[in-house]
User: Fold these one by one.
Assistant:
Number 1:
Amino acid sequence: MPLSDAPAIDPAQVATADAATASPAGADHEVAVQVRGLVKRYDGRAVVDGLDLTARQGAVTAVLGPNGAGKTTTIECCEGLRSPDGGTVRVLGHDPVADARALRPRVGVMLQDGGLPTGVRALELLRHVAAMYAAPRPVDELAERLGLHGFARTTVRRLSGGQRQRVALAAAVVGRPDVVFLDEPSAGMDPQSRRAVWDLVRELRSDGVAIVLTTHLMDEAADLADHVHVVDHGRVIASGSVRELTSGSGAGPSSIRVEASPGLDLTTLRSALPGSWDASEGEAGVYTLTGAVDPAVVAAVTGWLAGQGVLARSVTTGSRTLEDVFLDLTGRHLR
Amino acid sequence: MSAPTARVEPAAAPVARRIAAQASFETRAILRNGEQLLVTIVLPVLVLFALVRTSFIDLDTHGFSRVDFVTPGVLALAVMSTAFTSQAIATAFDRRNGVLRLMATTPLGRSGLLAGKVLGVLAVEVVQVVVICGVAVALGWRPELGALPAVVGAGLLGTAAFTALALLLAGTLRAEGVLAVANLVLVLLTVGGGVLLPAQQLAGPLSHVAVLLPSGALGEAMRGALLYGAVPPFSVVVLLAWTAALGAGAARLFRWH
């Protein structure tokens, strides 16, 4: 059985689903958020250090990174909540700090810690935020979409984490924003809530909204994002569509996984493979070979196994998952 | 880009509506919170009752009836409890919970949030004045209605000074610290700050210090307005000076995160 042949989201399909012209996503969609060389220091320590990021209308842009990578600080600079120490940030062509007044009606924000007052009831809060806009989304319809009616009259203090997250998301989108920043939107949510949130995000995207979200959930990024920025140590260290990130060079499977006896000689394996291939033994006896898979390479691998007199328990071709890519890029150590 | 569907363009509500919504929201939050009600309504009413109906404290009332003499100070205490203690605690916890940051990203903005808070304080004060004056009248208080403009003026000056102090505390200390400090300061100023009783009736050096405190100045202003028909200019100067100093401090030092 192949490791994973699940297709990544094809940005081209997403774009043609709603755009009148059948053009690939990305290139011709208007840039909504442009960050160039962003630097932000706390107490002299650079938390964001020369970060570049672009997000487009009608697309979901995911910012992935380990804790402390600088994701939230970057998002807060885009929201106008922090002033950059260097570089430029433009949201819908505006400076988020200097042009805050022009941007506030057009930008929806969901903070990582929610930012909800604790003493008020869930729907009362949503109605209050809606009152800040001239033509907000109907609160009842939005509450229905996100299942808020079940706890409409419960005070925020007594909501579960996932319920609070849904209220916060509703507050972020109630003003019909052009750009939405969601900082870990589905943290603490049960799978049903997460589905509801993802559906809403997809609907926003097809309405032409630019969605920028940070997440730790690789499946969230893989399922939702048109474009992924992997951030570490305050910089973007990889960027592209999910497919681009997971397949390395172009289409097709990009890895071969071999389960066999541990401690096989990798030097002879590498010499049996084309030059661009890499081979490593992760867990004992589990070998990951990465490169552009073609029939000849598979034959070379099985030929090498035969030459070693080794019977593999399994040989599978597949694509690396986004999580594999992420861990390769950011390392496996805890932080 | 191509406009996909008939999208409604995002736009802010008019500024007056945003601020009114925030003021109403803040007012309801305070009036619904048990601890806040205790400090802003129950405490001043109890103090009024105790000072008028009991004689634990020997009052030199300068020839006025006890209720006439005490009610202005209780109104000053009410202003302090709402503009300072209640507002400091509410803002500190909103700051810790990210509420200030979230609302600042909506069309309300930071200045709208501040305006909403100040109007919310004034709305709660109206409720306090109605309750306290109702109880005082029941106890025999018969104020001069002509004093109303001076009372409102004194109340606004005191509100400005104490709201500035509230924001300075709430924007610089941890929420738990603000909770402790805001209550402690209220107690200290009530006992030794020249709010309920004229500063000159306080013991020793306190009598000289209290007139320079915002609490003493507010108390004197209220008593001047209701007992003598005029707010003493010195109290006005003291309250304005505190407002300027505390307001500048809050504007400089307030941290949103």
Number 2:
Amino acid sequence: MNFKRIQMIFLAIFIAMDVLLFLSYNRNSVGDSTASGNNNILEEMRKDQITFSKPTTDKHEGYYFSGNNGDALRQSATNLQQQDLHFSGSELVSEFKKPVKLTDGSAKQILDKIVANPGLIAKGKQYEYSKQLSNNNEIIYVQRVAKKPIYSHFCQIRFDLDSQHRVIGYSQNYLGGVKFLKEASKTISEERALTWLYQYNEIPNGAKVSWVHLAYTRLLTARGQYVFLPTWVFAVKINNSSSVILKRVNAYTGEVIKTGDNNQTSNANSEIFTLT
Amino acid sequence: MKLRKLWLPVSLVAAVLISLGLSGMMWTNPAHSNLSNRTKVTKNSDSTSNTTFQDIYLPSQLLSTDRLGRQELLTNNRVNVASDLRDRMSHFTAEKAKSVSKGNSKRYLAQLKRKESVLLNYNSAISVNFFRKAFNNQLKIPNQKFNRMQLLLNDPKHLYLLNDQGYRIVRVTLKNNRADKLRHVLADRMVKHRVAFELFNGKVILTYPKAVKLRTYSYQLTQQTQDYYANRIMTTNSNSNVQIKRHQNSTDYDDHGFRHMSVDKTTDTVTFTDYNSQVKSNSFLQTMNHVYDQLVMVGMPLDSVRFYSYDSGSNTAVFRTYAGGLPIFDQSNFGAIQMKVLDQSSYRMKFSLDSLQVPVPPVQTSATIMSSTDLLKQLKNAGIKENKIQGIELGYEWSRDKSLANVVNLVPTWYVKTNNQWQNYRKLLGQQ
């Protein structure tokens, strides 16, 4: 009788232990998806209903460079014609004497000609049309350095459009005195940047990555100069929202660049555009 | 009746077996150990993997000699010339090697000054097997040591391997090399500095006959926290707790097993000792492989860190941060990383918590450095005996900016090696 009771107690203990072991085993299996390869992460992203086109695995080269909005634009602006212009700080604000009518489909061609004309736009040859940053209210041209665009307010031409789709005028910022601070170094691939962005929880479930560009972003200001570095810029469209948020990943280290004082230096102030 | 008697022992046995089975599964499956990261969000700081074995073991100097015998040190502000040249030199194949000369210093110096050639230099002797891996080529010649490679622009069929130790010259007959490929690399706009090889106390040194103008750099100082390294390298043995002892100027971490880490707060350096690491140091290549693996394991940023020298006597490899093709001194008293193999199963690594990642505009764009002739004159006047000088080298001095916090200025200056230690020449002259 005594022996039977001991057996009963043992049985109860072992069953409880089995249940516990089974539970902990199961919990470990779930969520243990820290897969080694990027492919598994991409698959996981698809499971989270994130839409994106297949990222490339190519590595590129980029520079750290510095520059500022100095007097270069002011000097070459003296040659400009057919417009009323003034400077607000280092920004050139101009109104065309005769608004330029843009027709559907050929807006880019018309503006390309204007930008290329040194009598109309100063330093225009260094800028290029950006379809992604432009919208119905303004058309944006971005300055290029070392064959890559700079996505920053400090290096843009913005053409303002009125309700009749006419260009009334523009505002321009120009980055002068560009100096390379270090020799070219290899960037990480788009695929790696995308998977890291996801792993930092920067892409919510159900979001859509509309486009990806390798472009320069301002990282910080030091000694009166802006310092830029190559970044992978992801346009993330969040579910149930019309706005697109640009997320920037440091193309050297894979770190997500954030606004505010997350960085160690107090003058770190990166930009994140919100497009509508 | 019999069944009712049996059900209790049978189910007890079954329960015991199930629990045994389950615990066995948890023990054997590595995915369920505490080591794995169970969370989805892992701070993936493996930016180090961006720096490959090939990158960290690039030659430290690049020289060209033109048709008239003018020798120049090559750097480039836009591209890394050494890696560019390395990529062109991959796919070299060779089977024949012939020793040309040995022990003849005059002949050796003449070979170094050979017209229309490119020299790739290492500070210490490397092996053919190592060269094959670092340059990704197919040199199938007997393994031997050398510290310079000489490519000939007017003779693409030959490559010379030179060793300062014993003035050895070995000629390798190449297949699949095209001279125009090399010329293409050299055709790019380069920053060139006049240099000349000289014998100094029987040692080959590189001198600068004229004053040189070099770029200065400024960097934002990136400092890794000691917790990062403590988590990365001290918590691998999940069964034991890491003991942390805090002292006034340092913190010690000990895992009661094989690993010990000590962080010195005054110099921001870490000394890490691993007593349980299989060191296969039978050959130079194996040692370097091992060193590289450990660097990746520790996970320090290796962006501009490169192999500087290896001393086979003390089994110590030194890595330095490089800027504009020149090494940086004074980051710590050992360089960026020092790795010493203690014995077959242990090593000690010293490294700096500081690293340079983000360049910022410097105050002055360049600085002029006196010629090596002037340097040697000054050293002589200060009473430093010639035979005490083991070497001279141009390098960058690491100093914190006085007005900007967390900014490091790199200013070029002369470094002199005496008593096996590199020092700023001003220190030797008593000016610092």
